Amino acid sequence: MGYPDGYYYGQGRIICDTSTFSVGDTIRVRSMTDSSKVWNQQVATVGTALVFTVPCYDYYKICTVQDIGGTPTEIGGVYKTVDYGQTIFVDNMFDKSTLRGLQGILNNHSENALNIGDIVNVKINGGNDWEMQIGAINLYNQHEVFLVSKDIWTNSVFTSAGGVAYITTSYDILHQKMQEFYGIIDADDRVYLKDTIRTCKQEGYDNWLTFTEKVFPLNRQEIDGISAGGGTPTTTISQFALFTTQANRIKKYNNVASYWWTCDGSSTGATHVWTVLSDGTITVQGSTNSYGAVPCFRLTADS
After folding, report:
1. Cβ burial, residue 226 (10 Å; 0-12/13-18/19+)
2. Could you tell me the CA-to-CA distances from 212 to 15, 147, 200, 215, 231 in Å, in that order?
3. R_g over Cα of the chain
4. Are 286 and 168 part of one and the same domain?
5. Could you report the per-residue pLDDT of 253-284, keeping only the tens digit for each?
6. Are 145 and 269 contained in the same domain?
7. I need a labelling partner for 172 at 20 to 30 A (CA). Which of 8, 20, 86, 226 fits?
């Protein structure tokens, strides 16, 4: 952008993109070692970068500031060290409630700006938002988050006709529901979803099935930390931090706490599936019942 390293003797620059902000939004750069070093700038023109000239050899927090209850409050943020004469570019790093901002946080390896349970708004067709929650951070790899639908997206009967396991075919109803959810996500947000390798226990058997999807249902171990039993998953799966609290497993459909499916079948019967009940506990239920689907997807740093 035309700001070479070493342009300022003993100083550096932090350049912040503003394309995801609104006119009047405040961006703050604050030294983490000297409380007197604080710079605030307001966005005058969306898309025009804000340039902060700061002393080098220091560690800075870059965030937004919002008025909450009459008190200026720092929201989100990333942390950067500015070396001698260095120019640092910060792109879309502050609005952690959007997929674009979340992707920027991951790309800058700044997951310390995130918290389990944070709400992230996903744009869906028609101009509406669907609320997701951060369910796990860096669970499998570094610079990675898993997002879980805050509530039940849809309610359907998942029938295992003739005893055929309901996750053995590509047209299985539960996975159809995941694909339908993926299909209604606005194209601008859909690009951030990453392919994810999944394993789920086959209904009525003691073996595990592997598949790759961008939007997927959760398995039992991700919810309560217990394997569905009867074998070992082909990938290591841990409990999502969000679900270590039972209350966070409670999902609503039309504002009423309801049952929702995991993708793990039970070996006790060909038509039985591990299911989260309305109080957040997990038990086996018949897959001919009408319960909910809770989508999940993954974002990870591009590098």
Report:
1. exposed
2. 38, 16, 11, 9, 20
3. 23
4. yes
5. 989 999 998 888 887 766 788 899 999 999 98
6. yes
7. 226
Question: Which tokens is 156 given?
Answer: 């359907």
Whether 82 and 175 map to the same domain: the answer is: no
Q: Are 59 and 32 in contact (CB under 8 A)?
A: yes
Distance separating alpha carbons of residues 51 and 49, to the nearest angstrom: 6
Please, where are the H alpha helices in 131-262? Answer: 173-184, 187-190, 220-224
Pairing of strands 272-276, 282-286: antiparallel
Instruction: List, for residues 199-208, the tens digit of each pLDDT value.
Output: 888 777 777 8
Distance of CA 199 to the CA centre of its chain: 19
State whether 55 and 160 are in the same domain.
no
Q: Within 10 A of 234 (CB to CB), how many other CB atoms are there? A: 13
H or E element in which residue 145 lies: strand 144-149
Distance separating alpha carbons of residues 280 and 259, to the nearest angstrom: 9
Helix (H, G, I), strand (E, B) or coil at 178: helix
List C-alpha distances in Å: 126 to 122, 200, 227, 255, 274. 12, 33, 39, 21, 34
For residues 137 and 68, state if they share a domain: no
User: In the beta sheet, which residues pair with residue 146?
Assistant: 136, 298
pTM value is 0.72
> Tokens 């006790």 appear where?
268
Alpha helices in the chain (DSSP H): 99-107, 173-184, 187-190, 220-224
Note down the domain range covering 48: 11-95
